[in-house]
Amino acid sequence: MPVRNEEAHLADSVARVLAQQYAGEFELVLAVGPSKDRTEEIAWQIASGDPRLTVVKNPSGKIASAMNAAIKAARYDVITRIDGHAMLPDGYLTTAVQTLLATGADDVGGVMAAEGVTPFQKAVAWSMTSPVGMGSAANHTGGQAGPADTVYLGVYRRDAIERVGGYDEAMIVAEDWELNYRIRAAGGLIWFTPELRVTYRPRATLYTLAHQHFRYGRWRRVVARRYPDTVNRRYLAAPAATAANLIGVVAGLIGVVGIAAQSPAAVEYLALGFVIPAVYLAGVAGAAALLARDLPLGVRWRVPAVLATMHMTWGLGFLTSPRKFARKRA
Q1: Which of 7, 34, 49, 283 has a 20 to 30 A CA-CA distance from 303?
Q2: Same domain flag for 267 and 177
Q3: Alpha-helix runs per DSSP H in the chain
Q4: At what angle do helices 233-260 and 303-320 cross, to 10 degrees?
Q5: pLDDT tens, 74-101?
Q6: Domain containing 255: what range?
Q7: Does residue 248 share a domain with residue 106?
């Protein structure tokens, strides 16, 4: 479990792991990064009371380096990735290991079951699990069991991780996706099963949601540059919409200025560029009105802003991702 600034959730998340009813032995390794809260203190306090817990340092604070440090310290042949703000359901480890053995997969995982507490979080949770939000990926929306490109969290055969050299510590985001790509490229199998559902608490404000998805977009572009064969229409939808909206707004502003300055008609017609973002916003609002109609009103009216924020910041991150991010580790 890589943890950093998880004071609010760490104790509950660890308790869910330790309460697992599992026939074999298991341990929990907490890889603690530099935190601005009491995360490290809480980690040591919890570890002092249970021999199944180990705490290791993660000076860089990166998830990939945390995972490598935790795997190095771990004793067993199955490695389960857990987030510090994720709540494992009862029976998770048993189901995961049984699936790993039954399928012969190198990694199994399931659904990021986003569940909100506040009305805003509930709007984000709905958007994350809707095809109009995060797309149709099974690890967000669910689906039938079978081979997959990646899965949420992941229960790995240790030798599969070691065979491909571990996590790439150059990856700040999408480190699981990138690792799973290399496992698949080496002939391994990634297996999705809807039985593994882990509760995930979404971001609580529009700013933190925007920041999260901007980073997602930036690092998905890194994956696209490294592995061009992974690019598909689903991942290009948000960047295309963002680019179209930006072009429409810029053209519209030029047209408005042209009208004020009595410029030639060709310039004034550029004001029609505002039609592009207007159509997009109407589409987002229509999708929310149609698909989210069963949500409480206080949640439903927040959905269009959440969808637009997710699309536009993800797309902007993708479009502005520096090429230097795509460098592979030595």
Answers
A1: 7
A2: no
A3: 10-18, 39-48, 63-73, 92-103, 119-128, 138-141, 158-163, 175-185, 206-226, 233-260, 265-268, 275-291, 297-300, 303-320
A4: 100
A5: 999 999 999 887 788 889 999 999 999 9
A6: 233-326
A7: no
